[in-house]
Amino acid sequence: MATTILIGAQWGDEGKGKIIDVLTERATWVVRAQGGNNAGHTVEVGDEKFVLHLVPSGVLHAGKRCVIGNGVVLDPVSLVEEIDGLTARGFPVAERLHISDRAHVVFPYHRMLDAQGEARRAKGEQIGTTQRGIGPAYGDKAARFGLRMADLLDPEFPTLLTSRVAEKNRALAALGAPTVDAAEILAATQKAMKTLGPLVCDTVPLLYDAVARGEEMLFEGAQGILLDIDFGTYPYVTSSNAASGGACTGSGVPPNRMDRVVGVLKAYVTRVGEGPFPTELHDATGEELRRVGNEFGATTGRPRRCGWFDAVAARHAVMTCGVDEWALTKLDVLDGFATLNICTAYELDGRRIAHFPANVRELARCKPVYEEHPGWQASTRGAKRLEDLPPAAQTYIARLEELTGVPVGILSLGPRRADTILRGVHA
Ligand code: GDP
Ligand code: IMO
Ligand code: MG
């Protein structure tokens, strides 16, 4: 498999960072193609824990090359902080990282407008964004008012920035918010560009040549399909295409060069931020999932909402992303539960439906139709083959495969590389 797209198949935080880290062993390139530092991808190596936001998770492996593609929105100051932090821990990021000159830049006014936008929404309409300026930066990209990494290296950058800041300050002042200082932003950006400038290039020929040579490439999705701007629970979504198609538009590697899609799927469901979540548990079982699964945001520290596995949502991921196999994560978190529920369909206004509705008001009215399964109440940690798992755990996995029509190729039973069972093409 030369080119593999890895996507989140739920509302993000499925364990993409861990699976990327496992798959990177065989890859030469790891490419981020959408999202920004709203992502928080956790990788545990030995006793050390890393949370990566903008830097592709492959950076923790020597000899791998990492790319931040054109589809990413990038906050230069925060990227330099991340690079410095990793470098101080012994990972020479600068040697391994290439940044697309087409990637759009997130400025402080985007973050401020993100916060203002949230504060000004009507009660109940807040999105619960990560406040990293993601929506306003993608908004400027679509409105053709954004600045890209190439602009930051252009002698005209100070003039370009000044006109953006003037316009954004008018917007901020109209909202009664503090304004920003162009000179301050210019200085901070230019300082960050001392580190980033040498890493910026046209990543299109770089990736084209690597694909032509048949080198193994991994596209590291951020967020998840249910947060995708087109296929997610709009408007409670992020502002990029987290679906597999985003890997193409966000990197310049065309669809007919992509070989495989791996969907990362948690054995239950979590969501951080607002928006409908049909299988959400508001009871002690939800609390228990949060506690055992340590479900607190890797970027914002917010508690994640937890609920049962949702096969309707998983099938939505299959249809929109062309998932070839699942990487099923956090099965170990279910070890202690006496019974497990799997949502097989929704009931909407008295009708049974099997698809994921576009209208969030309808989705909020959907009641999950559950199928109850006995838990295994035994530890799955340390299992090396699927056959080593308790029979009830094997049945649970087989049922997820059956309901989604997609096999589990990777099974994750803990946060570390060793806690992984590889099957099929990976074995
Ligand atoms: P990502 O955004 O998809 O990369 O996921 P996050 O890093 O935000 O959240 C996943 C969390 O689950 C991290 O703390 C991981 O270390 C942890 N994790 C990943 N896979 C497993 C697993 O199979 N079992 C357990 N118990 N934890 C896992
Ligand atoms: P990873 O890559 C989980 C959520 C936010 C909010 C919505 C919009 O770690 O899986 P944004 O700041 O993007 O405008 O917020 O999307 N969100 C995530 N939730 N994991 C993520 O990334 C997320 N990135 C954004 O909580 O509900
Ligand atoms: Mg995360």
Description:
This protein has 427 residues and is an alpha/beta fold. The chain has three domains: 3-102 and 200-260, 3-Layer(aba) Sandwich (Adenylosuccinate Synthetase, Chain A, domain 1), CATH 3.40.440; 104-195, Adenylosuccinate Synthetase, subunit A, domain 2, CATH 1.10.300; 265-426, Adenylosuccinate Synthetase, subunit A, domain 3 (Adenylosuccinate Synthetase, Chain A, domain 3), CATH 3.90.170. Helices cover 33% and strands 20% of the residues. It has helices at residues 16-24, 76-88, 93-96, 108-120, 134-143, 149-152, 157-174, 182-196, 203-212, 245-249, 284-292, 311-321, 360-365, 391-404; strands spanning 3-8, 29-32, 41-45, 48-52, 65-68, 73-74, 97-100, 104-105, 200-201, 217-220, 260-266, 269-271, 305-307, 309-310, 325-329, 339-348, 351-353, 367-374, 408-412, 420-422. Strand 19 and strand 20 (420-422) form a beta hairpin. Helix 4 (108-120) packs across helix 5. The longest helix is centred in the middle third of the chain and has 18 residues, at 157-174. It is globular, with a radius of gyration of 21 Å. The model has no long low-confidence stretch (mean pLDDT 97). Residues 8, 11-13, 38-41, 127-130, 132, 134-135, 222-224, 227, 238-239, 272-273, 298 line the site of 6-O-phosphoryl inosine monophosphate (IMO).
